[in-house]
Each structure stands twice: as structure tokens, then as C-alpha cells.
Write a structure and sequence with these properties.
- Helix content is 38%, strand content 14%.
- The protein contains eleven helices and eight strands.
């Protein structure tokens, strides 16, 4: 039996003309969102503000992270029309700030970097004033893939560290802590693109490990950090080791400050793209 969710982690259902409009546009363009696939608790709030985080390259991931609700299955073929559909949805929603993420595609030689870039280029064509944030996998640290992303010039490059080093083997066995740090450092060293990363708490980490992770992110020049509570998507996923209280999240803000992180969003329901435009 899963532990009852604390009241401060519950969100009311919001169903308005705006939320229905967002859903209609996404359905018409045959687009996925991480809001739906990862069961984000802020989904309806974001929809009510005419925004969503687009999930590209299919619904199936080639990795099996034990905290994530996205399916690990045979990946789908890339849809060459998807970048155009993303751009049309951004324009239809009149987005001033668009966030694009993806499943991990280790089956592709470039990890899907060109597909990310194509989305950016298409958005620039239809909505040249829209700011773009991308949330990418690690591309296995492939520098050629990262160069493709850098050349496309998103305003923000986000790659989530997700958890502390000690929990990688358990939580994300196909990932690598050092590779994630190297990805962020490479983008920062080679460009003036803002870099961003996020982690979940409640998987069994210690405050000392959180502090070390934040210092590591600071050392690779990470500009923006998000921290939120892990919520177990199903009984098949990692159990929650701890629900942090709002007061404990305030203490995490102090740890971030002491690590030298200048820009952060920290709170129980914070997710990597939550209020991304405001944070930018």
C-alpha cells in the first residue's frame, strides 16, 4: 500500500475553456506532452495558462528509470512532421516561452539531437519572438550531438541530474552522474546558452548528498536549478523514502544559496519545467 499523499502535494482539478483549448490543439496536432505521460501534478495549472511541455520522439523510452511513468518499450519511428506540428501548436497557443523535452532515444545515432534542432528551427520560423527551453537526455555525452543543439541556439539548455550520485545505480541504472555533469559543462563552456538542471528529493538521499550535488552543479556553471518532491507514479516504481515538508524545502533553498546557486525554483510540487518562463 502506498503512503497517503500529504495535503500540500494535492492539486485541485481545473477544467476551463483554456485547459480544453490546450488539449484540443495537442490532439489536433497529434502531439504528446510530458504533462500527461509523466503524470505531472501541475498539468491543469499549466494548461489553464495556455502552456504545456511538449514531449517529442514518441511515447516510448529506451531507458527504464525507476521513478519515471514513461514506458520503456520499443521506440517508435520518428515523425518527420513533428517539428512542424510543434511549431504550429506553439503559434496556435501564442506561447511566449516554449519547453520541449523528449524520451531518451539511445537507438538513434545522434540520440535525437537533430530532431530537437529541427523543432527549434521550425518554431523560429513561425514564432520568432518565442523563447525556447529544451530539456534533453544525456545523448551518452556525445559531443557531436551537443554541438547540433548548441548550433540551434535555444535560450535554455536543461538536462536533469535527477538524483544524487549514490542513487543513480538504483534510480537510473542506464544513466551516469558524471556524464550528466559533463553534458552541462560542455554546453556552458562552448556557448552563452543558459544551462539548467533539476533533481527530485524523497528517494532516500541525505542532506549532505543534496549539498554535494548542488555544489557539483555550481562547479559546472549551471545557471538554474529546480528541486521538487518525488511522487511515486505507481506501485511498480520506486517507493517514496521521505516526504519533505514545506519547511524542509525552505531549508533546501538555503543549501542552494550556500552552494552558490543564484537562480532556483524549490518546492514540493516544483518540476523541471514548472513556471519555466518566470524563472527564465
Amino acid at each position: 500500500m502506498r503512503e497517503r499523499l500529504p495535503e500540500y502535494l494535492k492539486r485541485p482539478i481545473i477544467d476551463t475553456d483554456k485547459t480544453r483549448t490546450v488539449r484540443k490543439i495537442l490532439k489536433t496536432k497529434c502531439l504528446n506532452t510530458v504533462c500527461e505521460n509523466a503524470r505531472c501534478p501541475n498539468k491543469n495549472e499549466c494548461y489553464s495558462k495556455n502552456t504545456a511541455t511538449f514531449l517529442i520522439m514518441g511515447n516510448n523510452c529506451t531507458r527504464n528509470c525507476r521513478y519515471c511513468n514513461i514506458s520503456c518499450a520499443k521506440p517508435e519511428r520518428l515523425n518527420p512532421e513533428e517539428p512542424q506540428h510543434i511549431a504550429e501548436a506553439v503559434k496556435a497557443l501564442n506561447l511566449k516561452y516554449a519547453v520541449i523535452t523528449s524520451v531518451t532515444r539511445d537507438d538513434l545515432p545522434d540520440g535525437g539531437a537533430k530532431h530537437f534542432a529541427d523543432c527549434i528551427y521550425k518554431i523560429r520560423q513561425l514564432s520568432p519572438d518565442t523563447k525556447i527551453e529544451i530539456l534533453t537526455p544525456d545523448f551518452k555525452g556525445n559531443k557531436k550531438s551537443l554541438d547540433i543543439i548548441i548550433d540551434a541556439r535555444p535560450e535554455v539548455f536543461n538536462h536533469n541530474i535527477e538524483t544524487v550520485k549514490n542513487l543513480f545505480k538504483t534510480a537510473r541504472p542506464q544513466g551516469d552522474y558524471e556524464t550528466s555533469l559533463k553534458v552541462l559543462k560542455y554546453v556552458k563552456d562552448k556557448s552563452d546558452i543558459l544551462t539548467k538542471s533539476g533533481l527530485m528529493v524523497g528517494l532516500g538521499e541525505t542532506l549532505e548528498e543534496i549539498n554535494t550535488t548542488l555544489n557539483d552543479l555550481h562547479d559546472v556553471g549551471c545557471d538554474i536549478v529546480t528541486i521538487g518532491q518525488y511522487i511515486q507514479p505507481s506501485k511498480q516504481h520506486m517507493p517514496v523514502a521521505k516526504y519533505y515538508t514545506p519547511e524542509e524545502f525552505k531549508a533546501l533553498e538555503m543549501i542552494a544559496q550556500s552552494a552558490g546557486i543564484l537562480h532556483y525554483q524549490i518546492g514540493p510540487l516544483v518540476r523541471s519545467s514548472y513556471k519555466a518562463a518566470e524563472l527564465f
